[in-house]
C-alpha cells in the first residue's frame, strides 16, 4: 500500500503490447517506510535505502536527513514535499552502487537546460517567496548526502541543475479514484445531449474541487521514469500516461495505431487544458516547461487571436453588454 505522501523513484523495466511501458515504483513516507512487497523492500535496501535510513535517529530533529526534509516542508507544500527526497534518492543510489558510473550515465539521459532556463524552473518550483532558500537547501543536502563521485551536484550551479532536472522530467504519481471514474464515463456510449450534459458536469466538478484542493488533485508524489521522460508533448497526443492499476505501475498506452518510426507523444496538459485556446496552451507550456509547442493542432490554429481562453470569454461578455455599459480593464496579450 502506498503511503499518503509518497516519494517515488523508478526505472523502466520492460515494454509490451501497444506502447505500454511497465515501471516499478517504490513508495516512501516522511515518517516511516512502507513497501508493497518483501521483494520491493529487499530491492530498495540493495539500491538506496541503506543511505537514507536514519535508523534510531528517525525522530531526531538534528539528524541531517530530518533537517533537510523539514527545511523542504517549510518552503513547499504537498504533494511536492517528496521532490527533495527524490533528489536524495538519486544520490543514495549512486552512493550504494558498485558501478557508480553506470548510474551517473543513466541520470545523464534526462534532459539538461541552460542556466537561464534552470533559473526559471527553480523559480517556478519554489516561487517568489522561497526562491532565496535554494542555498539553504543545498547546504543541508550537502551535509546529509555528499558524494565525491557526484561532487558537481553539490555546487551552487550543480544543485540548481539537479533541481531543474527533477522539475523538468518529474512525473506526477496519481491514482485518483475520480480520474478512474472520469475515464469510465468517457467510455460510455451516450446520446449527444447526454454526453454534453455529463461533460459539463465533470468540468464543473473538477473546477469546484480544484478551488478547494489546488491543481494537484490527482498527484500523490513525483517520480523519474526514463522512457516516459523521452516522450515529447503534443496537444493531440497519440499516447497517454496513467496508473490504471492503482499500484506501482506507470502505463504509457497508445491512443491510436502508431506506425513504425512514428514519434510517441503524450500531453503535458490535462484534458481540460487541451481544450483551451492555442494561446492559453502555449502560456501554460511556457511557464511550466519552457518551450513553444508546434504540434499539428497548434500549427493549424496559428492564425487564431493571441488571447487566452479567459480573455476570449471576457471579450464575448463585453460584446453582449449595452454600449453604455461600464467596461473592464483593457485586455492585453500575456
The count of DSSP E runs of length 2 or more, i.e. the number of strands, is 8
Cα-atom Rg, whole angstroms?
22 Å
Largest sheet: 2 strands, antiparallel
**SS summary, helix count:** 13
Shape: globular
| Class derived from helix and strand content | mainly alpha
Mean pLDDT: 76
Element-by-element helix/strand order: EEHHHHHHHEHHEEEEEHHHH
What's the N-to-C terminus distance?
Answer: 44 Å
Structure commentary:
With 334 residues, the chain is mainly alpha-helical. The chain contains 13 helices and eight strands. The chain has helices at 38-52, 64-75, 83-96, 100-107, 115-130, 134-145, 156-169, 177-186, 192-213, 271-274, 278-289, 296-300, 309-319, and strands spanning 7-16, 20-28, 171-173, 221-223, 232-233, 239-242, 251-254, 265-266. The strands form four sheets. The chain has a two-stranded antiparallel sheet. A two-stranded antiparallel ribbon has the order 3-4. Helix 2 runs antiparallel to helix 6, helix 3 (83-96) runs antiparallel to helix 4 and helix 5 (115-130) packs across helix 7. It is globular, with a radius of gyration of 22 Å. Mean pLDDT is 76; it is low at 1-31 and 315-334.
